[in-house]
Amino acid sequence: MKSTVFLLGFLLLSVGAFAQQAFKIASPNARVNLTVNVSKEGKLTYALNLAQTSVVKPSALGFKLQKPAISLTNFTLISADSSEFSETWNPVWGEVKSIENHYKQLKLRVKAIPANVLVDVVFRVFNDGIGFRYEFPEQEGFKHFIVADELTQFNLATNNKTFWIPGDYDTNEYLYNTTLFSEIHALAAAKKEKDIALQSLIADNAVQTPLMMKTPQGIYLNIHEAALVNYPVMHLMANTKTFGLTSHLTPDAVGNKAYLQTPFNTPWRTIVLSNKAEEILASKLILNLNEPSKIEKTDWIKPQKFIGMWWEMHVGKATWEKAGGKHGANTENVKKYIDFASDNGFDGVLVEGWNEGWEDWFGNWKEEVFDFVTPYSDYDVDALLVYAKKKNVKLIMHHETSGSVTNYERRMDKAFQFMKNKGFETAKTGYVGRIIPRGEHHDSQWMVNHFNRVAAKAAEYQIMIEAHESSRPTGLHRTYPNWLANEAARGNEFNNAPTLGLVPEHETILPFTRLMGGPMDYTPGFFKMHLNQFIPSRTTRVRTTLAKQLALYVTMYSPLQMVGDLPENLKVYPDALQFIKDVPVDWDDTKILSAEPGEFIMIARKQKGQNQWFVGAVSDENSRELLVNFDFLPSGKTYTATIYQDASNADWEKNPEAYQIQKVSVDSQTKRTIKIAKGGGFAISIK
Ligand code: NOJ
Ligand code: CA
After folding, report:
1. What structural domains and CATH numbers belong to the chain?
2. Residue 661 half-sphere exposure toward CB, CA atoms < 13 A
3. Secondary structure class of 582 (helix, strand, coil)
4. Overall pTM > 0.85
5. What are the tens digits of pLDDT across the range 42-70?
6. So what's the pLDDT on residue 16?
7. Angle between helices 405-422 and 381-390 (to 10 degrees)
8. Whose CA is nearest to atom 11 of ligand 1?
9. Which residues line ligand 1 (CB under 6 A)?
10. 33 and 44 Cβ atoms separated by less than 8 Å
11. Residues lower than pLDDT 70 in the chain
12. Would you indicate the residue range of the signal peptide (predicted)?
């Protein structure tokens, strides 16, 4: 690891109470230009340009506090200093082997008047965007404080094309809306959604982050946050007339936003920007703004591919609950999954519905549901662990909390100890429904602290975590690399939702939005597209081609990838299954070949420690041809590429399961056009 800090010297400008002070700071490559201003009247603002083009106009910074009841909106400048930092670090797992973290920093110490509260506002300017945060240093007369709201603005320079989901304190499981910024209507969009278990809408102009936009000049920008610790999730309120956004923090049960004590640093507010869509997907800015791993010894942390005793319940073949006679998680059935995982080289088998409590788990807002240690009587956990071990497969634990988080907090140690004793290494957690403590939201400060506590606690037991219905990630997997993935968006399982389901463009938007903060357990790998296999009256269906399901293993980066469908459906197409068997879940290198949000994405990745490459490409509802330039391959070597593509008559709607496979020789000079069907995609393994 190389690490350098250059101090550019103290930049204290004219600190007269009435003078205006302006600071300009450019990214290392001078493309991203930030201006920070403390006006004569005491307003603290920043503005952002990409080269000469204004992207964010002067936007105010500040806070409203509930206790003490003061505003931090007028400031005098105390001091300013700037520095440059550069390091290269290696993630425990990831899309690339090493990550460059190079930025210029401006730190302003300001004093809020008339309250006399000191705040350090820190800006970091990278080649692909900026991050800034508020730091409340230790100081006399100001220690404990309660935030009424954060008043950070993002005043957009233009009426951008915007990819948004409605602001909601409890869920991110929405379809994306693509409109001009001026056309955002969150409540109307949210009302169309009938299949989301719990909605807590904010306002017609509230949207969630990561918020992806494209300016009329073709600049791509993404607003999100990094390192969300001890603070609520930030939503954004849009002013559709002025193209302004203002932060809106998630309230707690009594309406406050955050309970803080100095010294305290807020999460970073991030704006990733580039005139190339590919560079947004390649950005590591959010990871770079997170703290290095708190876990020193990380050799027990393993990326993994797994199947689940799971989709059976979603499509009505079995039930989570034992009562009713269709219990999926019985010993014999789980053995079949272990056999299938073992036969295909998958690392794990997730078993849902294994523990007592599912008869009455959802909807009653009750405190005591699961104890996380008591298996159903037809589930012989010890025998299955022995069986799985023999077959070189790991069982993955499921901790559905049903939103009763107090209950989970009380039982977490016992639950992780139970896992440790038995040899479980990974837990999928879940937070379906209304939260207990009652009145808290999935996105409130208390819950953010809970999710982070789970990651830290699990690490003590050397357990890996993936969380469903958590708040959306902000790059904390750098700090807790045992936190492999989250759901926190509308996943592939929503294909089975009765009303809207999914749309083919969804997977061309997610990498630009939800995935900016971290990996998702999207659960790709559905081969049976009509979901009426067990309940003939069901009209739900997967809205992709089969080849696109393969491509998702490359385009939807995660160190934890499920093979979603039932073994009996996967077995129908053994030659397509071969791609899922081959595709790795950890990478040395990633090249975003071409992408446009809402339209298509094509990515090449090099397998960790192997000279093998994989390409994935996905399209929206349109068919298209994409030119694959194999110049990412090292020159002078010939490889065999196996191309899994849509058959010429494939179509997500009319003929989704039709695909073809061909083997061709490729080298770094090869260029090849590949056709994608409507709602389709292709996947290539290159050996
Ligand atoms: C919702 C999760 O997203 C899904 O994967 C899980 O099967 C159910 N909750 C039950 O826990
Ligand atoms: Ca879910």
Report:
1. 3-288 (2.70.98.10), 523-687 (3.20.20.70)
2. 15
3. helix
4. yes
5. 999 999 999 999 999 999 999 999 999 99
6. 46
7. 50
8. 400
9. 310, 352, 400, 430, 432, 468, 487, 493
10. no
11. 1-19
12. 1-19
